[in-house]
Amino acid sequence: MYPTRIKFNRADRPEFVAELKRRVNNYFKENNITKYGNNQMKIKTVFMISLYMSPLVLMLSGVITNVWVMLGMWALMGFGMSGVGLSIMHDANHGSYSNNRKTNDFVSKVLYLVGGYPLNWRIQHNLLHHTYTNIHDHDEDLGQGFIRMSPNQKRKWVHRFQFIYAPLSYTLMTIYWSTSKDFQQVLRYHKKDLLKTQNITLTRALIEIAVSKVVYVLLFVALPIVLLPFAWWQVMLGYILMHAICGLFLALIFQCAHVVEEALFFKVDDENEGSMENNFAIHQMKTTTNFANNSTFFSWFIGGLNYQIEHHLFPNICHIHYKQISKIVKATAEEYDIPYHEKRTFVGALKSHFSILFNLGNGRYDKKHEAPKLQKVAS
Hints:
By secondary structure, the protein is mainly α. It has helices at 14-30, 39-61, 67-94, 101-108, 118-131, 162-171, 173-191, 202-227, 232-258, 280-286, 296-301, 308-313, 322-335, 346-361; strands at 274-275, 289-291, 341-343, 375-376. It has one domain (3-376). Helix 3 runs antiparallel to helix 4 and helix 8 (202-227) packs across helix 9. The chain is globular and about 65 Å long.
């Protein structure tokens, strides 16, 4: 698989792309503000890390003696863990947290605290997902096997029940992430020569992953089991609860942006000669959906990722600006007759997500939603 061979159509309405960029750039210039994070991001960083780590510190200090309060602390950590991932490390790994590259690199390492590996995340998310959104066998954010998230995936008998078991599967996402996923990914990316894009060798990557996992387990598993005045299985129950909350929350936020009824899906006939009918920006708008844009606190907590259209068009702009530039994007899209998908509420997005899971699992996917296959580049 060589995803870089996919070619987007630069001749497809370039005037829309040029005008959109001009208007967004003018917004920052006219208001004399930076595209990166500001004091809001600093305050949010302190808040989210505190929400995640403070309950652990309280438990390790010995002030928590009731098992139900202990479980409540782990649950709170689950939301804190989500906030760290959605609102801090996400921007840092995109290079939009700060205009200082070293600052972005430093803050991106907060991903180690939630059991992940920044390098793998950048390859999967920045390179594969953002570049090849909803393209079968290229966008790794689409499910493989157990959950059918695209009409281009082979349908199996178990998929008919996926709208029921999907939430349970989502709860396991960060546990899998913090244990074996990074090792499997880095080996796969090595075979595809994708590690070269991050200027790192396989040996170094494996060492970094191994060391980070050991430290993570010592801090979040071993220390609580040894120091907390509870049975080991009670502590592990709390640990699993934290991951279940975080995994479910993260999965639903991201899936409601791309695996919904309005989004289109694509497949490459020949992976070495794939050519898109649309330019990159329009492809992003056809495969992405916003939701709950009027919910201030919800948007703040999830790092503005309910503005997924703006995020995919301008990933190098900090999420604190998405609400304002969304007005520009929507107006420009309407002017050029480009689709701008949005759900009024998060509940509406969830309904759409589970509806498409049901239809995909039962072979009832409406063909009008399916994009045509990509054509080969003329020789």
